[in-house]
């Protein structure tokens, strides 16, 4: 064995099981540890892990990533829940281990990464913009991490173009029908059995609309992005937020 020594944390979850299979298949990567919730993280240092893929739950991801950084293990993180406070704390931890790379990836699917990129490009050309996400009903968080990241990027592109708020005359919003509002962009979450992960970004201006849609029908959709990140995260010390930064976009 002489490839990148990789591990999966959360190996028995829906994503973790797929990631274990994908990394076992990947050339130039040796999967040397696969941890569930009852395993100690010390197994990672005992196995001399170089890159760990973190796919757990929002409640534990921050402490897992802190352990990785403190032990100089590069991290490829798919778990949601990385708000600005958590990202700020992570930056501080990374300052103590400057050669270590951490990728926080709201979505590993190439289609979703491109959809967010296209949405950012389109944002300044349309008066209205809203994000709709649809996921399986076992998902713990709403709105999805991808939808939050998408809304933030649209809002930043609008702000950079000097645009004001989206037009909306709503005076009463009983039960939150207008959805969550992330940096001024409305985000709507649907949970539906039979679905995996889907997002639609809707833009509108007088007389025209643009809809950008991405569908992940199977968790295999996320695996090429994970494998690519495991191969390249060591070249990106510090914090990287979004797989787009590891791609040639
Ligand atoms: N970035 C992306 O592209 C994607 C991100 N996600 C995100 O990834 C995360 C996982 O999703 P999914 O696989 O569907 O969730 P699951 O609920 O299927 O899996 C979560 C796993 O986390 C494990 N876990 C919980 N606590 C710990 C811990 N302390 N140490 C190790 N493992 C732990 C559980 O382990 P056990 O079974 O051993 O109790 C469980 O198997 C979610 O936040 C989801 O939103 C999902 C899809 C794509
Ligand atoms: O929980 C999921 O399934 C997914 N979570 C991520 C998110 O919240 O954006 C990525 C993808 O949408 C699937």
- Total number of helices: 7
| Straight-line N-to-C gap | 33 Å
N-to-C order of helices and strands: EHEHEHEHEHEHEEEEHE
Helix % is 25-40%
Question: Beta-sheet strand percentage?
Answer: 25-35%
The CATH topology assignment of the largest domain is Rossmann fold
**Whole-number average pLDDT?**
97
Instruction: Outline the biggest β-sheet.
Output: 6 strands, parallel
Our Rg estimate from Cα atoms comes to 19 Å
CATH superfamily placement of the largest domain: NAD(P)-binding Rossmann-like Domain
How does the helix and strand content classify structurally? Answer: alpha/beta
Number of domains: 2
What is the CATH top level name of the largest domain? Alpha Beta
**How many strand segments?**
11
Q: What would you say the CATH architecture of the largest domain is?
A: 3-Layer(aba) Sandwich
**Bound ligands, named by name, code or SMILES:** NADPH dihydro-nicotinamide-adenine-dinucleotide phosphate, ligand LZUJQKHR
Main sheet strand line-up: 2-1-3-4-5-11
Shape descriptor? elongated
| Low confidence ranges | none
Domain Dihydrodipicolinate reductase C-terminal: 111-247
Domain Dihydrodipicolinate reductase N-terminal: 4-108
Binding site for NAD(+): 10-15, 78-80, 105-108
Binding site for (S)-2,3,4,5-tetrahydrodipicolinate: 136, 145-146
Explain what you see.
The protein has 7 helices and 11 strands. Strand 1 (4-9), helix 1 and strand 2 (29-35) form a beta-alpha-beta unit. The two termini are 33 Å apart. With 249 residues, it is an alpha/beta fold. It folds into 2 domains: 4-104 and 220-246, Rossmann fold; 110-217, Dihydrodipicolinate Reductase, domain 2 (2-Layer Sandwich). Helix 3 (58-70) runs parallel beside helix 4 and helix 5 runs parallel beside helix 6 (145-160). It has helices spanning 14-25, 42-46, 58-70, 84-95, 110-122, 145-160, 223-232; strands spanning 4-9, 29-35, 51-54, 74-77, 101-104, 128-135, 180-182, 185-191, 197-205, 208-216, 238-241. The strands form 2 sheets. It has a 6-stranded parallel beta sheet with strand order 2-1-3-4-5-11, sandwiched between helices. A 5-stranded mixed beta sheet has the order 7-8-6-9-10. Helices cover 33% and strands 26% of the residues. Bound molecules: NADPH dihydro-nicotinamide-adenine-dinucleotide phosphate (NDP) and ligand LZUJQKHR. Residues 9-10, 12-16, 35-37, 55-58, 60, 78-80, 105-108, 222 line the site of NADPH dihydro-nicotinamide-adenine-dinucleotide phosphate. Catalyzes the conversion of 4-hydroxy-tetrahydrodipicolinate (HTPA) to tetrahydrodipicolinate. It is found in: Cytoplasm.
